[in-house]
Design a protein that fits this description.
The complex is a heterodimer of chains A (about 110) and B (about 120).
Chain A (H helix, E strand, L loop, with lengths): L3 E4 L2 E4 L5 E7 L5 E7 L5 E9 L2 E4 L6 E3 L9 E3 L8 E8 L8 E2 L3 E5 L1
Parallel strand pairs in A: 2-11
Antiparallel strand pairs in A: 1-3, 3-8, 4-5, 4-9, 5-6, 7-8, 9-10, 9-11
Chain B lengths: L2 E3 L4 E5 L4 E3 L2 E3 L5 E8 L6 E7 L6 E3 L2 E6 L4 E6 L8 E9 L8 E2 L3 E6 L1
Parallel strand pairs in B: 2-12
Antiparallel strand pairs in B: 1-4, 3-9, 5-6, 5-10, 7-8, 8-9, 10-11, 10-12
The chains are: A mainly beta (about 110), B mainly beta (about 120).
């Protein structure tokens, strides 16, 4: 039982490049989310999914796309990277009842130059 | 609008001291959930507690305790007899119904440093 697995752990992108942050969970959790963490701002919700085929925007969705074709996977796509997207990205999953809160992945530290 | 305020940016204590981390929230909903997470220097986020708005009982888990007061919209976290391993950033979070289980609003976090 690996929990929530995020890859890569570190990434440097040039402005304008695109990439996909991978997220997979093996706990059969219905809900999955992406958050970004910036200094002094806590964590902010980018996108979330309540089940396969269902996604919605969070607080800061601009510049990001998501899809959820399976229960296990929830990739985050950066369409055209900008320096403002330099951040630490966390994927998280939880059950429908959320009794034990989110299980978070270990994070991806992204730098856009 | 929902909001979580953690006014203490950083706290330093000496080992074995008690320390309280403050969390004040704003919400218009009557049904909501409050959470605390720990982020140690390694960077992962660790779930500590979830409390719903209808349960104002204080919670104790070992050296950790939580004081939920709806009258002051606060959900404070106390560590008794702090240890160096408690050094971390602690986040308080709020989630309202109907998305109470997955749409969190986080505070900006409190960095706790426990000195040996």
């Amino acid at each position: 039982n690996a929990g929530v697995t995020q890859t890569p752990k570190f990434q440097v992108l040039k402005t304008g490049q695109s990439m996909t942050l991978q997220c997979a969970q093996d706990m059969n959790h219905e809900y999955m989310s992406w958050y970004r963490q910036d200094p002094g701002m806590g964590l902010r919700l980018i996108h979330y999914s309540v089940g396969a085929g269902i996604t919605d925007q969070g607080e800061v969705p601009n510049g990001y796309n998501v899809s959820r074709s399976t229960t296990e996977d929830f990739p985050l796509r950066l369409l055209s990277a900008a320096p403002s997207q330099t951040s630490v990205y966390f994927c998280a999953s939880t059950t429908r009842t959320g009794d034990y809160g989110y299980t978070f992945g270990s994070g991806t530290r992204l730098t856009v130059v | 609008a929902q909001k979580v305020t953690q006014a203490q940016t950083e706290i330093s204590v000496v080992e074995k001291e008690d320390v309280t981390l403050d969390c004040v929230y704003e919400t218009r909903d009557t049904t909501y959930y409050l959470f605390w997470y720990k982020q140690p220097p390694s960077g992962e986020l660790v779930f500590l507690i979830r409390r719903n708005s209808f349960d104002e009982q204080n919670e104790i888990s070992g050296r950790y305790s939580w004081n939920f007061q709806k009258s002051t919209s606060s959900f404070n976290f106390t560590i008794t007899a702090s240890q160096v391993v408690d050094s971390a950033v602690y986040f308080c979070a709020l989630s309202e119904e109907p998305a109470g289980t997955y749409k969190y609003i986080f505070g900006t976090g409190t960095r706790l440093k426990v000195l040996a």
